[in-house]
Write a structure and sequence with these properties.
320 residues, Cytochrome p450, two-stranded antiparallel sheet, 1% strand, Cyt_P450_sf, oxidoreductase
């Protein structure tokens, strides 16, 4: 058992003990490991706590209803097709290449269209400045968390990381605010016109703001959109990359996935999948779940305790 001189931290590796923490309605504050990320995405659903977290979560839960997500299937499929076309061009070369940057751009395009209702076409080389800023910010946040010396503000700025981080945060948050303002104006102009156009995550937030202005301010909307942008593309691209890697390592399982797709689509490879098709992708779902078990995109989750918790004694634990 090791006790730090600052605050004791307890690390656990057993699911049943995680449940003890996650079932608590009190111990929901995130630990200090999220502090640098908070400077970027703000106090959104990922990081907020207390009454703010509860009210926001209740409000946002409806935006993740199955019927809402169903509207985005065409976006997923169309952006996925672009990714396949891009990878097919690269695969014509004889040398290996890293597919993760391509997958990241695909997931970023998907999350921008579904979250903000705008297309940045990063897979086609557009909006490189914003795309590269998001990528670099993710790297800086990770570098900050794994290097304790950077936790000292003078050191963080001495090496230039602080100035770069601040500049990129301003660039990305200004982009989000501009999109929010444009979307607000667009909705005002067409509020009296009937429309069958699918609503983006941002549209639901703006409608919620109209109903609950005391809960969701303009900055609150910006926080939730940036949170959704970060969570939605970074972890997703990591999970997809590992899934493809595993399927490449085990061609016998890859063939079973291919057989399942052939059974669903037959010879119509150009058809976009619908909800019924996705329900039939049972073996593919098993492969994805096994990937998430073996290589979780978020390898650790931390909490700052607000009250004492009784932990079972029959499991290993480490204090540091």
């Amino acid at each position: 058992m090791l006790i730090s001189l600052v605050k004791p931290k307890w690390a656990n590796f057993h699911a049943i003990l995680f449940q003890t923490i996650f079932d608590s309605s009190t111990n929901i504050p995130k630990s200090s490991q999220y502090r640098k990320l908070k400077e970027w995405i703000g106090d959104g659903l990922l990081i907020s706590t207390g009454p703010k977290w509860r009210s926001r979560r209740k409000m946002l839960t409806q935006t993740f209803h199955f019927a809402v997500l169903k509207e985005y299937h065409k976006v997923f499929a169309s952006q996925g097709k672009i990714l396949v076309d891009v990878l097919r061009l690269r695969a014509n070369n004889t040398y290996p290449f890293d597919i993760m940057p391509y997958i990241k751009r695909c997931t970023l395009d998907i999350i921008c269209e579904t979250a903000m209702g705008c297309s940045i076409s990063s897979q086609m080389g557009s909006n490189d400045k914003y795309v590269e800023s998001v990528k670099r910010l993710s790297e800086l946040v990770w570098n900050y968390e794994k290097a304790p010396l950077y936790w000292l503000k003078p050191i963080w700025y001495l090496f230039g990381n602080g100035f770069e981080f601040d500049r990129l945060v301003k660039l990305t948050t200004d982009f989000t605010r501009d999109v929010i303002d444009e979307r607000k104006e667009e909705l005002k102009l067409h509020e009296s016109e009937p429309s069958d156009k699918k609503l983006a995550f941002l549209d639901y937030l703006l409608k919620s703001q109209t109903d609950h202005p005391e809960i969701l301010t303009d900055e609150g909307i910006r926080e939730e959109v940036d949170t959704f942008m970060f969570e939605g593309h970074d972890t997703t691209s990591s999970g997809i990359t590992f899934a493809i890697w595993f399927l490449g390592q085990y061609p016998e399982y890859q063939q079973q996935v291919q057989d399942e797709m052939d059974e669903i689509f037959g010879d119509d490879y150009e058809r976009y999948p619908n909800s019924e098709d996705i329900q039939r992708m049972i073996y593919l779902e098993q492969c994805i779940k096994e990937t998430l078990r073996l290589t979780p995109p978020v390898p650790f989750i931390s909490r700052q305790l607000e009250e004492d918790v009784l932990i079972r004694k029959d499991y290993n634990r480490v204090y540091f």
